[in-house]
Amino acid sequence: MGGRERSDSPSPILTATGIRKRFGRKLVLDNVNLEVRPGEVVAVVGENGAGKSTLLRILAGFLAADAGEVDSRGRVGYCPQEPGLIGLLNAREHLRYFGAARDLPPGDALAQGHELLQALGFPVGDPTLVQNLSSGNRQKLNLVLALLGEPEILLLDEPYQGFDQGTYVNFWNHVETWRDQGKAIVVVTHLLVERQRADRLVELRIPCPSVVGGEPPFGAS
Question: How do beta strands 40-45 and 200-203 pair?
């Protein structure tokens, strides 16, 4: 999957320029730039604390950057590392609730969601409350909610947490399918083998504080 070069490469559908973010006195992202094109898988890598999850939250519009701009030209599906689920609802109720946020009629949300859940090996129709699901099934539902409404841009923050080996392989097979469908995909990962599945890598580094004081030098993108 890696290393594709195309002379007819389309224009970026997602662009981030000069992204900077602090939490208190801690500089997390400094002058980070990113471009993603339709039909491209970009792996975001870096050590813990490099701001990978923070960057995806900014790209998804859930967190404001202190400086810089994000230009998104398509619908965004965001899968956070920690499932943003409601413990007292079951999977079917989640599909209806999150589908409404995508302006999907309940029937369409359920049909779409059930097809995606079945493809990931989730027991469709299971009435179990989310708080009682296994971590793997919670993560499957978390991923499917990001896919509702057929977004053109997928922002996936280590979306396979809790998957068994078969589901993990199945997930990456789906990534290839989504890429071939023209989706722009950003995946936060830390495993070396996964980098080979991406078309391009973006490495984030922890910004270094200035030796003399003032603003730290810009980080990496």
Answer: parallel
| pTM of the shown model | 0.87
Strand ranges (E), the chain:
14-23, 26-36, 40-45, 67-72, 76-79, 153-157, 184-188, 200-203
* Side-chain half-sphere CA neighbours of 218 within 13 A: 11
| Residue 70: Cβ-neighbour burial (10 angstroms; 0-12, 13-18, 19+) | middle
Q: What does the pLDDT look like over 165-207, one tens digit per residue? A: 898 889 999 999 999 999 999 999 876 566 778 999 999 998 8
Burial class of 15 by CB neighbour count within 10 A (0 to 12, 13 to 18, 19+): middle
- Read off φ and ψ for residue 18, nearest 5 degrees: 60, 40
Nearest-10 Cα torsion for 206, 51, 217, 36: 120
Average pLDDT rounded to a whole number, residues 7-15: 85
